[in-house]
Amino acid sequence: MENQQHDEAHAALTAIDAGRTAAAERLVSPLWYHPPLGILVAGYLAAVTSRSIVVTLVASPIFFAGVFALVSVYKKITGLWISGFNAGRASWWTAAMSVSLLALYGLAYAQIWSVWAAAATAFIAVNVFGRLFDRTLRASLRTGTVAHPR
Amino acid sequence: MKAALNEIIHAPNRLQICAFLISVDRAEFSIVRDMLGVTDSVTSKHIKILQQAGYVQIAKPTGQGRVKTWLELTPSGRLAYAQHVDTLRRVIADSP
User: What is the ipTM of this complex?
Assistant: First the structure.
């Protein structure tokens, strides 16, 4: 009886591994996802640190609509969604990206000459941290270290 | 002694659905079906059992073209799955 339950438990854990591996294989951001996101973030950073209310007012709806459209297309194509702040160990990359973007915002706001350099760095940060996030998440899923992110 | 397994989750297809859904926030029905490699009706049957137990929540957002069905584990589904996995691990650890 116990042996049977032991075998069943083994088979069940194998099924769990299969489900997790399938999720890891599906969670691959398309190559086109991060570059436009980086452009949106860089453009928004340049706009809000320009100290022009008009520029900020024009840029804000473009930024939010752009991010919304990008996320919608991502969901439509991949059929999956996982929040960057809700992904176990991979969420550290989201936190690192957020801190670096805040630092770049502070720099660009304090030193107006640095706006374009900060925007370019923001573009790179989104792309680099985004790919690191994807890689860490997939590795965590395969090893089972993202048990229940929420 | 026989450990108490959650029979709703323990069926292989439902276990795989839970293991898949716990890894993401939401997944579209067709992705779950393809992952299982079974038909729409078999997937629906298992999802319905999980939904009736309060473990899976179904959303059909409208206004975005063709209506797609999105699946999500509820907090009680996440808890039940975690407890089930713990039980499975205990069974294996306690085996002679």
Answer: 0.76
